[in-house]
């Protein structure tokens, strides 16, 4: 969303040069267009939040808890979810709303584990957006047996920026972060890392082959989000998947 941003309390503004919360940059190009740009973006966010409220009510009526799962492309969301469905089979009824720009590749990978899966391609009528917003999520809900579910996991489009800016009516946000992504990303993408309730640090099976400094990553994460639950995992070996499933089960039970 460019240099426009939204604070956790819902207020919005464009950055200015004497902004004192750590953001810096050359904002001169926005001097003329800034006011109308902010107005348009406020409209987009307020319309999104209105539909997110409708989704939230829909989840409440159905008695289903919803987790919005985000990450960069390739961090391991779908791999973790296939493991998750295997692990939690028979313990609760799970639905997956699979968000992708194009293809049913990931939705197909998630079939056959007993979960209800609905695919939303953002290239099909949503302009190929790099995130799911509340309207896109609502479009997929009609294809899920919500009232029969205990937990709905939304696999968002792979992107460390935009998905964090759109509430979709979820009860909790989580992210998968691969150890191949470097230690500094919490500092470079603070909106995402700040927004989440849990971070699965995935691909720990690769640690012996990398120079990834796990302690430095955890310190960077803690600097932007001191309260996120951190779960070290490998969707390849299954390490940590039980802990993740316990966290998910706790989310589902929180109704
Ligand atoms: N070594 C290793 N590879 C993984 C792990 N999790 C996922 N991958 C691989 O990473 C790639 C991207 O995984 P995917 O689940 O499609 O990521 P997504 O784009 O976030 O859904 C695939 O080749 C997976 O096999 C892991 O824990 N360890
Ligand atoms: Mg995926």
Plain-language structure description:
- The protein has 255 residues and is α/β, with parallel strands linked by helices.
- It has one domain: 3-Layer(aba) Sandwich (Rossmann fold).
- It is 36% helix and 18% strand.
- It has 8 helices and 9 strands.
- The protein has a 7-stranded parallel beta sheet with strand order 5-4-6-3-7-8-9, with helices on both faces. A two-stranded antiparallel ribbon has the order 1-2.
- Strand 8, helix 7 and strand 9 form a beta-alpha-beta unit.
- Helix 1 runs parallel beside helix 4 and helix 2 packs across helix 8.
- The N terminus is likely disordered.
- Magnesium ion binds next to helix 2.
What is the compact description of this entry?
It contains 8 helices and 9 strands. With 255 residues, the protein is an alpha/beta fold.
Radius of gyration: 18 Å
The string of secondary-structure elements, in order, is EEHEHEHEHEEHHEHEH
CATH topology: Rossmann fold
According to CATH, the homologous superfamily is P-loop containing nucleotide triphosphate hydrolases
């Amino acid at each position: 969303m460019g240099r426009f941003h939204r604070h956790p309390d819902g207020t919005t503004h464009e950055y200015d040069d004497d902004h004192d919360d750590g953001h810096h940059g050359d904002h001169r190009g926005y001097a003329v267009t800034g006011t109308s740009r902010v107005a348009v973006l406020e409209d987009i966010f307020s319309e999104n939040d209105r539909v997110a409220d409708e989704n939230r009510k829909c989840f409440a009526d159905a008695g289903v808890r919803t987790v919005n799962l985000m990450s960069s492309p390739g961090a391991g969301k779908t791999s973790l979810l296939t493991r998750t469905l295997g692990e939690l089979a028979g313990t609760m009824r799970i639905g997956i709303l699979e968000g992708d720009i194009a293809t049913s590749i990931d939705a197909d990978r998630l079939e056959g584990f007993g979960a209800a899966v609905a695919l939303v391609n953002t290239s099909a009528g949503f302009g190929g957006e790099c995130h799911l917003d509340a309207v896109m999520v609502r479009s997929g809900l009609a294809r899920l047996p919500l009232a029969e579910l205990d937990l709905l996991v939304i696999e968002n489009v792979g992107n460390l920026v935009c998905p964090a800016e759109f509430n979709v009516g979820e009860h909790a946000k989580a992210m998968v972060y691969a150890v191949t992504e470097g230690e500094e990303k919490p500092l470079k993408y603070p909106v995402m890392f700040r927004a989440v309730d849990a971070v699965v640090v995935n691909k720990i099976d690769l640690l012996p082959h990398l120079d990834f400094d796990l302690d430095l990553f955890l310190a960077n994460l803690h600097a932007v989000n001191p309260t996120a639950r951190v779960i070290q995992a490998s969707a390849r070996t299954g390490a940590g998947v039980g802990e993740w499933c316990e966290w998910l089960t706790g989310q589902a039970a929180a109704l």
